[in-house]
Specification:
The chain is α+β, with helices and mostly antiparallel strands. It has two helices and six strands; from the N terminus they run E-E-H-E-E-E-E-H. Strands 3-4-5-6 form a four-stranded antiparallel sheet, with helices on one face. The protein has a two-stranded antiparallel sheet with strand order 1-2.
């Protein structure tokens, strides 16, 4: 199932061209945080659900690039969840970095 965002709310989109145009032109970033040592956390709207068996659609993804949690990833369903997920992942990375110092 394909989705677009309207006022930060995922809305199903049946029209492939409308969806493709939206994905190509809209800002899909929820948050982005650069941390020390080249590590960053990025949270984005995916536009496609990654859930299975009729579960709630997983439309947002938070991923760590670099450091001990390199490629650590979580997915969720709403913008609000994605904001919290991003915050939580940044806190995890910072906690690991502070243990090393």
């Amino acid at each position: 199932m394909k989705y677009i965002l309207k006022d930060k709310i995922p809305v199903p989109c049946e029209d492939l061209m409308e969806w493709a145009n939206w994905i190509e032109t809209e800002n899909k970033r929820v948050d982005y945080t650069e941390l020390s040592n080249g590590v960053y956390v990025s949270t984005v709207f995916l536009g496609i659900s990654y859930s299975f068996n009729g579960e709630e659609p997983l439309l947002f993804e938070t991923m760590v690039m670099g450091g001990e949690l390199n490629y650590e990833m979580e997915r969720c369903s709403t913008w609000k969840q994605a904001e919290f997920q991003h915050f939580r992942m940044v806190e995890r990375v910072l906690a690991l970095q502070s243990k090393k110092n």
